[in-house]
Specification:
Layout lengths: L2 E4 L4 E3 L8 H4 L7 E9 L21 E4 L5 E5 L7 E4 L8 E10 L5 E6 L2 E7 L19 E3 L1 E2 L2 E3 L1 E10 L5
Antiparallel strand pairs: 1-13, 2-10, 3-7, 3-13, 4-5, 5-6, 7-8, 8-9, 11-12
Length: 171
């Protein structure tokens, strides 16, 4: 079975004890990241689809979201707008499972490569300089990774399955 997200709850992955920068460092040239998951897309207004979102304050280190209408995968490094976006070759259809894979690297600006159901969708480079260190005063929750929402807002409505986050550029 898969995890069902009704928009009211999230799945949180804590950082390694003593290393609050663990999630923030991922997706840089020295710590490339591959993020893979399957989602059951339930609606044109689904927000943070399996977002990896971390960091204190009004912004956060990084997050992924399926756009409203299922037309793109967006990278967020500071709220409220996406810093990079890769359009899907074909928009997501409500009521179907999809496998999404994202490879992220970059030191001065992060670059994402996106695959949907094994088909390469394209690449985009962020306009934001990545924050890779913990900001002063981050709580345990702020230094953790969340699945099912983007930084406290935009819940994902649907199912999340087969999540894998790897500190390597696999794709």
């Amino acid at each position: 079975g898969s995890l069902r997200s009704d928009g009211t709850g999230i799945l949180t992955a804590r950082y390694t004890p003593g290393d609050k920068d663990e999630w923030a460092r991922l997706g840089t040239d020295s710590n490339p990241m591959t993020f893979e998951m399957s989602i059951f897309f339930e609606g044109a207004t689904s927000g943070g689809a399996g977002s990896g979102d971390t960091g204190p304050g009004p912004g956060f280190w990084w997050g992924f979201s399926v756009s409203d209408g299922g037309t793109s995968l967006d990278l967020y490094e500071d709220l409220p707008t996406a810093t990079a976006s890769v359009p899907f070759l074909t928009p997501l259809v409500v009521g179907q499972f999809y496998s999404i894979a994202v490879q992220m690297t970059g030191t001065s600006h992060r670059t994402i490569h996106v695959w949907l159901d094994g088909v390469y969708q394209g690449t985009a480079t962020s306009t934001q300089t990545p924050v890779t260190e913990n900001l002063l005063g981050a709580t345990d929750d702020e230094a953790s990774l969340d699945l099912g929402r983007t930084n406290g807002g935009d819940p994902f409505i649907g199912n999340i399955d087969e999540v894998r986050i790897t500190e390597e550029a696999f794709l």
